[in-house]
Amino acid sequence: MIRFIIKRLLTIIPMMLVIIFIVFALVSMSKVDPGRMKLGADASEEDVYAYNESLGLHDPLIVRYGKYVVGILKGDFGVSYYYNEPVMDIIMGRWPYTIKLTLLSMAIALAAGISLGVLSAVKQYSILDRIATVASMLLSAVPTFCMAALLVLTFSYKFGLVPASGVTNGWKSWILPAITLGISYSAQFLRFTRSTMLDTTRQDYIRTARAKGVAERTMVWRHAFRNALLPLITISGTTMGALLGGAVAMEKVFVIPGLGTLVQDALNRNDVPLVIGAITLMAFTFMMIMLVVDLLYAAVDPRIRAKYSGGKVRKTAKKETAHNG
Amino acid sequence: MEKQQNLLEIKHLTIQYVTEGEVVHAVNDISLTIPKGKTLGLVGETGAGKTTTALSILQLLPKFTARIPTGEIWFDGENLLEKNEARMRKIRGGRISMIFQDPMTSLNPVLTVRDQIAEVLKLHRHDLKGEALDQEIGRLLEMVGIPAFRMSDYPHQFSGGMKQRVVIAIAIACSPELLIADEPTTALDVTIQAQVLNMMRRLRRELGSSMLMITHDLGVVANICDYVAIMYAGEIVEYGTVEDIFDPERKHHPYTEGLFRSIPNIYVESHRLQPIDGLMPEPTNLPQGCMFHPRCPHCMERCTVPCKTAATDGDGKAQIVEASAPTVVEGTHSIKCHLFAKEGEPA
Amino acid sequence: MAKTKKTKSAYADAWRRLKKNKVAMVSLVVIVLLIAMALFADLIVDYSAAITQSAADKLASPSAEHWFGCDGLGRDLFARIIHGSRISLLLGFGTTAITTVTAVALGTTAAYFGGKFDSLLMRAFDILISIPSVLLALAISAGFGTGIPQLVCAITIGQLASFTRVIRSAVLNLVDQEYIEAERALGLKNGRIIMTHIIPNAMGTILVQATMQVARNILMGALLSFLGLGAPIPTPEWGQIASDGISYLRYTGHIVIFPTIFITITALAINLFGDGLRDALDPRLKGKA
Fold first, then answer.
1. In this predicted model, what pLDDT tens digit does every residue of A116-164 receive, in sequence order?
2. Smallest CA–CA separation between B64 and chain A, in Å?
3. Residue in chain C nearest A320 by alpha carbon
4. Which residue of C has its CA nearest to A149?
5. Domain holding B276: CATH number?
6. Is B13 in the same domain as B90?
7. By residue range, what is the domain housing residue B88?
8. Is residue B59 part of a domain?
9. Over the stretch C226-258, which tens digit does the pLDDT of each residue have?
């Protein structure tokens, strides 16, 4: 298992290098002139050139990229053009807000989506199932930021129950953003859980379990759900990426000073080092999440575990199950 | 009384699957008996309703689509169709257990073999705990020819034949009175088939269980069955002891004859096999009269219409009811066909 | 062969099933109406109404004169939403068309030929997928500025990887099937097998995926507009209108509510139609008697 983790971590390195390069190259396309920004419109061409030269901006892209990567290895993400502070320090100050929002929403999305999904699958065609299906269809058709606006309109401005924005009201500030984002993404989990559960309950081993005299509840949780968990874990990883994007929007609606707002402000201010640093860090976080997902996957599925522990993988022939009436 | 000897008695069982606007007539008015300690072979093509019959005994038919409009399933003096879900759970895996067709998919991939056997033991044999439980699991595995130390392995670590042995171990764990085996060897290699069959025969003898063996392989039937029921399009067309069915001198249903002609016979010199012409009718659209008449070489005018036949109702009173074809009974042997019925009067 | 190959009659079958599905049919009507609205926007209300500012009508509530009220600059919201449908829908359908064609081309070749191209492409997509698409869009806008082309680019690239994967695995399933093998054995040219057997058989999956993709892309477009990557001012666009409305939320909700309703109805109708399409094309339902 440890060997697997190390192997998996090693694959992250080249992937991160490519990601940083993509982001670096994209952002470097912008015609930003930090020298002019810094020294003002009155400064002479020579001074501006000299300033940019000192930042290494006239080097070819690949050289700048190389220097940047070497810097990262030393923990140096460069200095923000706007704040004139190390990028890492600024990011670290904003990071907790984004993490908090993402984790809270993810927890809500998973809890609501999975429990309702399992329920609707078990009680297929019931009223609850129908309501849940319609609700999830509706939810996944409303843009998250629009839903946030509607909820603010109702619960903050109309009923005055929760603050409309900011993070100065303690836990109350997090209710609306986390619930909006969580509920919005729970729709995906609900539909996915429902269909996977319906799929697993049709499997032969569920019939075997029934034939043993297993009670409905054991059948659902011990047999069906544990198998449905595998695809669910995979989908959770990718959804987390989408949710991270949604968090950027939530931060804008609710004025939360997280990484999302930071990137947006940095974009508006042409603060290239900060943009690259923040996006890189978020991509890195996402990769780590995917690593955790892989580990969870191995924890749940013995077949994957066997594959990881270095043993030979026996190829099982995929046999079409012949149906017999 | 007859009821004492017969462990399982199915009477006039009809099963339908109802889906959007379509009714699938899977099982049509069948009656079967399995005496204590005996094996009944249920033979027929794919889609004849064999598995549906088996699942109905355990009441494992799909909840939303399956309907049982008529019939009784008597097991040891109790009608299973009248039992509620909680009562049925006590019977499933304990007194009646089932071996499924495809061992590759019949075991839960995320649980160890030990856990899967332990589950059925815990449900039906409450006295087993801790060390004794593990010992019993080991003993069961050894019984089906798997070393006990492999109990902590997962299904994917076993081959197809081994998996089927595990499935069998689960099925015999509580020494069931009735063992239902749904084509237990179809998905296995030929060499493994023989091993598994021999093992099943031995286990059945040791446990003294009755068995319902579903198969389309007449060789399997000759090997391990005492009685045979031939099923076609949801009906039982011929029923008797193995001797009755396998005796070429006797009268047989044209479908049974067709079945025998379509397998190679080393004692009779023939140039080629003679398959039965045509296909089994769609269960959504069964023919009038005898189910087999569109394919029958002996088809007569009266085969194409339903007929009146004598039957006894629940109180033992004789009645005239409508059937697809008359049933002719001769000792232990019965055939559902016009060929052998006297014309003009209900058989 | 006749059984596995989707013939015209199979599509006729699917269409017949689809016609029976009321939800899908209502959705189809809604989609057609929305497209008609976008096409004939000028006939419904003059474009100038969508961009003319009027200080007196600032944040005006819905009335007989302004059906949906006015926005923060006093522009008529009804006109802005009607004309906004053009960019929103064009964005949704256009990006989907680009994504679909690219994904089908890449996914089919990768799955059919396998080998180095396949593994290289899948590696590349692994990387692409690990950049959340909103971040990728932000990076694109950082490099190339904001505007419709950048938006199209961001949406397309953001969705391409997952779409291609779906097509690839659908084609992989087909390639494994025996009749394709038989065709290869018969010596048919690869190009011909792909065009006459693989693509027609994968068409069901492609159609359903593409339909759902339109809804996803419309939502993504709205989100990116909200994040300031959308159409240049004063061009109306649904996401843009809603996001403008958020700044006035304290005073009035109608500027957000109306575009939200339109986005939601559009996405919902497309998704429901996609669901119906999938059910109609689903071979599992077909095979089972």
1. 999 999 988 899 999 999 999 999 899 999 999 999 988 988 888 888 8
2. 10
3. C177
4. C246
5. 3.40.50.300
6. yes
7. 2-95+174-284
8. yes
9. 888 877 777 888 988 888 888 888 888 888 999
